[in-house]
Amino acid sequence: MKNATLLRLAWHQSIAATRLPIWRALLLALTVAIAIATALAVLGERLERSLGRQTADLLGADMILHSSRPLNDELEARARTQGLRTTQALQFPTMIEAGEQLQLVSLRAVQSPYPLRGAIVTQPQKAGVPQPGNLWVEPAVLERMNLQPGDQMQLGYAAFTISAVIQSSPDRGIGFGSLSPQVIINRQDLENTGLLGPGARVSYRQLFAGDDAALSQMETELRAQLATGERITTLNAEQNFSGGALNNAARYLRLGALLTLLISALTIALSLRRYTLGSQNRAAVLLSLGMTAGHLQTLFLLQLLFGWIFCALLGTGIALGLEQLTLSLLSGLLPQPVPAAPIALYGLGALLGLMILLTLGLPPLIAMSKISVMQLFRRYSPPDTLSGRLLQLLAIGLLILLLMLYLDDLLLTLILIASLLVTAWLLGRVGAYLLRRSAYWLAAKHTLVRLLRLRLQQQQRWHRLQIPVISLLLALMAISLWARSDLMNRWQSQLPTSTPNHFVINIQQHEHQAVANLLKDNGLQSALYPMVRGRITGLNGQSLDEALNPEQRKHNSLNRELNLTWGSAIPAHNRLVSGQWRNGENGENIISVEQKFALELDLDIGDRLRFSIGSHVLEGTIGSIRAVQWESFQPNFYVIFTPGALEQMPVSYITSFYASGEQRKVSRDLIRQFPTLTLIDIEQMLNQARDLIGRLSDTSGLIMALTLFAGLILVFTTLSQELEQRRYENALLHTLGATPKQCSQLDLLEFGLLGMICGGLAAALAEIALWFIHQKLVLIEPVLHPLNWFLLPLAAAALFTLIGLLARRKVDEHNSYRLLRELR
Amino acid sequence: MNSPASDVILSAHDVAKSFTTQAGSLQLFTDINLQIRQGESVAIIGPSGAGKSTLLSLLAGLDLASAGRIEIAGQATDQLNEQERARLRSNHISFVFQTFHLLPELSARENVLLPLEIRGASDATAKADSWLQQVGLGARLHHHPSELSGGEQQRVAIARAFASEPDLLFADEPTGNLDEHTGEAIIDKLFLLNAEQNTTLVLITHDNQLAQRCDRCLRLHNGELVELQELDV
Hints:
A: disordered C terminus, B: four-stranded antiparallel beta sheet
């Protein structure tokens, strides 16, 4: 037989097969697997290159020293003598003003040369750093404030002209602040803005670039004298980006993608088996016409290859689309430009698809060639062969290898697979049991249900597969939806409406009274708290190293400057839990400390804490312990002094207030009249956080949609497996006098019950997972989701019915007799 | 059933077939002996379940006997490997099935071409067209099975069977899926072509009238194959 003939025959066979639902299911599952594997590999690599392994172009330097305090000029001189290039950048959150509008931004003040590596790309193209009096903004600022290049903006006391839009910039900083839209100004202008008061939350950065030896020497020197609140970022450092949310989202995406791959592989195996069984007759005809078994296998292999080519093109195309869509969803969150992935990665999904197809497609082909032509004609199910089993093992091995590549961890991969299998097994058992029980219970009520019990028995093994797949997928979708909205609701609704939505810090001593008056004139209730920055350095006459154990010394409050305040009475929103609020006597300073802080550091009434404030050192004796509601959005303090002790120190004031409607214009008045204070609009901040979470969950929504789609194809495939059994059964019922309606009812009853049980199991799973997430991860009060228990069963029943109707061909009284003859 | 060995095209010696079932081993038949000469037409009749189709599959080399020996054109099928049996089928044997077994995605011409292409015959298209002409489907070359009636499909199957110029043609209930009138027309065509081509025809049927048109008639019953001298129509 000529190769061309085989090719032509295979082509015809491929085209003809596309009319078969089971072959379509196979192609769809393969396409989804290829798309998801490619998208995951490419996106994973690009995100990792962008976030995990910083390149010099993204870092803007070879090494950066971060500090919460101004950096010493001596450092710069030392770097220069060592032959390094160096420069400084400052970054902090502030409100920017244009006309009537205020916007929370992350302000970066830079000086030439900047950056030391890579470049800021702007539109129109600008070199170096902004000219004094000019600022560069990210597109988000212009969009939100409806501005254009050339417009004026106000930062503190200084006015600026927008001279360029930032397309991409290295050195975006770290932490949540780096996720706000950014504005870059010249360092020379910073003084004029007056924004750098004692209360400003500034991150200072010293950037270095140069040859490796000098850098490494500098790094060693810096590390030796690294103070608290300082850290060094180098090119080699893992995870420079503190994007916890992004990492969690990436993990979630991977889980979704892994599930999709596993489900797709199962679908491919099942649909190949079904297709091969369905092709036995064709194989028998070809063999009876004199075709050799070798040629027959080649013919089917060629058909698999044609299918693969189609799926590889389509799947890779979808992956490219997903890649672009995801990157555009995450565009504001990633350092731009996102590094490209190696071209070879784009072929990974297609290669994986081919290997899955061959390793899963060959076993039924081999098995088919082991039985006689007559047995093929009689649709005898061929037994599994050793080589077939080995190939299936190879397929499983390949999948595990792939999962390991994605997860970088063998143990985690195995645990994940094992727990998935155990959960699926359990769900299958529990679901099948519930199905049996409910049919038993219903049987007393309706004749048709007795037939249903027979049906359930026949379909049991498929139900045990369908139930876990659909329950798991629905649960995952419910979890991702609820986890997001629970968090949002918590932020929005659980705070009383009068919870302050504006924070004002950095109010100077001389502005104190005027700010208080302005707020009062606008009918706003707020208390201004004096604030002094200081560090705790000793306890009961000992240094912290001597007085505390290593675990206690890691406490967050000891490794940074604390905001200290004083007052003659306990703040209204605090509660005294022990001791008394009293003023100092005989020159003794009395302090009140927060309850949890006291507990963790093992502090009690009468203990003495030593503080360093600038060049001053003073001690305070704990007179009382207070409970503080941190979520109240009121200024809260670990330590409150009695009046008198801190009044000689450099002080600024802090307040918060709730303004709504007309009152909101007070923020504009505040900025106008007191340009140097820092006003934080909490609503804008929450909106930015909401936007971040929204984008991340939209991204995971994309993957989840694909996962659900993969699951539906699997259900379709499993329903098709016993389709002939169903058709035969229905045809038999017809000839025994059942109406088409009754037969449909039997199917609907089965799908409805299946749906209810899957939905119920999914709701239970989601509830457990959400409880865990609330309790352990996001630390909010767990809530029940009654809507789940109603919607998920409905959704699952609808899905089963829809797919069931798609899978079964209409059986009516006209063709039932023919069916009975054909099928038996 | 004795005949000169020289022109024997198909012979069976002590052939047995058994199956393993859940209830144990099932002996369908034992000690089947048979010789068919080139150009003969032989009908095998018998009640349902007697094993007629199984016997045909053994005689045609589609399955292997549990015991005994079958020779087709002088070659013992149990001595051949799978590939050699495929070549034997390709060179000597054709089938006409009750359910036609045409490949649905191929046109009438392509279905007839298939066995010719499998054996690598030259001038295949011309041969296929000519055979379709002979069965009266010259105008339907490019129609697919779904566009043809049952009778027309069976005629395509007959054209396909004769196209490869077989020595042996096996027909398993060729009219079983057709109405009486169409069935008769098909059988007439089958016998006509068989006579013209000097093909050996082995026919399985329930229809005694049809069996009577054959040179010989054998009945398979209770595991025994008996040659009938006269058939009670």
